[in-house]
């Protein structure tokens, strides 16, 4: 480590005046005019003694170079003792990237008791700004939303970058502040001036104040579809209506059956319900009329899922309706303060909410109330939300845009119009036990050995199938969504997190008893298990105790991994078989569409293939093959449905671009087109479903605060025209691509037949397809961003 203490004065001072510190800021150290009050320690960084420089904006700053080492850092400490920051809210640092690109900077603040507060700062290119790091854990989630407003912002004429922070700190005993970078490939430069502390309440208030206008749109940006008046809403609706008529007329000439099946493709038996079949080495969904069906779907097509909490943060909204006004009908009450990982650290997650989408539908389609003449009764006021009109308009959109499937979490009434095939979720809820894998974004894994799980499954399937048993428009049912089959990592503890988590529980849990029975049946006693696992287990009762920790797999004792793997296989088999058996009884005509994996294990995927008709995955990747090893999936020989994917940006209002974020709105269409093209070219993929229909609220949805722009339609019910046109073009081309892929599959099959190679055209509607044993999954996924 190299230690350098800066001299009292610089040899070089510029004539340009230094920018005054903001009101209320306590400056502890100035890199341009240093004093012996702070020690500066460099490690892999270069801080020349006389290198102050003037920026294009006239500020005088000091250059620091982070060299390409493992973790170059610059550490600030008091000359003696510790800093008392108990009366301050944020650490402040005047800073600028000296590069032509954004930099990522780590800030670590430590107190005398060893506690640390950390912040990962995305430092944009451009003029200097004041970086503010809150001295107590702070994030946009604490303000009720997944991502915060764009930074930097202007406060009192200065650029301010408000960062997030995590951890804990004794603010009375602060002993160091460290700036660092992670493994820069080339030298990176920043410019620094004042370092200090200040009260941060006013800045936080300024950053989040008046975020949203009266239409639910961000006040922090402008874009082509942004609405400024009710008249603009109505005009946009009229223009769109004419466009949809033309597009729907074109659709009638596209050679589709009434379910959206491809009438010019291979012919299959018409069974009256959707099913799967493999033909010429390629898997297909088949319509009730016997035609190939490539499922192009949209998730969350609903008018009742766009509310956002306003209680306690009314200052974030510029124009909420007053009580008694017509739009006040779109207020409601909710409580999403559940103890789930998806909700951890979130503020403003209960109380009064407002539905901007519903209010905008009222503005667009509602009729003003007619004032009665004197002595006449008051006429009824037209409802702004006409459910039937909304359903018809929405289905027109989906069909005009080339979609043919209503995806998960959509308004069930849409499927009853006999226009677009639909899917349904199975909501298996009960008081059965659950197992934590450490990746419990939506909760722990259901214990399928618990008799109460079978009862809950039977009840859920019976309710779901009650009104749909003979509906040919229903494609099938999903077995839950994004369950935590593995832990958050690639290490053995994550790979086998379900087995480890089960053994830590008490024997009151059925899964623990099932695992212990498996081990006792194999090893008979603790001596046999101790030898196989290479550990000392004095008594069998020790394994029954809560908190038992199984050893890690190792080459010397291969039975450890074999036992963990076998338990996870039996667990997954029991889970999927329970659902499959119930669905066979209550809904024998419809498909079981898999578990919508985000996190998976090979055992879970293989069991899903064995008991379900379709394997389903949520892929937040640029192309399907980035989401899973399809060469391994090939061994399972099952059709695959991609049940979630999207591409978002941050230039249309909502502050989050999603997991697969692109740079700008214009990039979303090409990304969609590429994904569709890659999916159609994969013989096992039978469809892809976009997430989601509408943008999420700027200030976060009720469920977990997600606030992403990845919708086809904005909160104003105005479509993103450029993106929609691109999506429509890609969807219509999918049929052409499917035709080429089918022809290629046919030629390949003929060539294999000529060579005497069996290409296995097994298929059909059954739920008993055999699962291969060589599949390998991944313990990845996006459950941290899940839906």
Please provide a written account of the structure:
The protein has 787 residues and is of the alpha+beta class. The chain has a domain at 25-208: Galactose-binding lectin (Jelly Rolls), CATH 2.60.120. It is 25% helix and 20% strand. The protein contains 15 helices and 32 strands. The strands form 7 sheets. Strands 2, 4, 5, 6, 8, 11, 12, 13 and 16 form a 9-stranded mixed sheet that branches. A 7-stranded antiparallel sheet has the order 1-3-7-15-9-10-14, with no helix packed on it. Strands 24-20-32-31-30 form a 5-stranded parallel sheet. A hairpin with a 5-residue loop joins strand 5 (52-54) and strand 6. Helix 2 (230-251) crosses helix 3 and helix 14 (668-681) packs parallel to helix 15. The longest helix has 34 residues, at 721-754. 45% of the residues are buried. Residues 1-20 and 762-787 have low confidence and may be disordered.
Q: What are its keywords?
A:
single chain; 787 residues; alpha+beta; Jelly Rolls; seven-stranded antiparallel β-sheet; 15 helices; globular; disordered N terminus; disordered C terminus
Helix- and strand-based class?
Answer: alpha+beta
CATH topology of one domain: Jelly Rolls
CATH superfamily of one domain: Galactose-binding lectin
Shape: globular
Uncertain residue ranges: 1-20, 762-787
- Share of helical residues: 25-40%
Using the CA coordinates, give the radius of gyration: 30 Å
How far the N terminus sits from the C terminus, by CA atoms, comes to 47 Å
CATH architecture of one domain: Sandwich
Query: CATH top level of one domain?
Result: Mainly Beta
Count of separate DSSP helical elements: 15
Quaternary state of the chains: single chain
Number of β-strand runs: 32
Strand-residue fraction? Answer: 15-25%
> Mind describing the biggest β-sheet?
9 strands, mixed
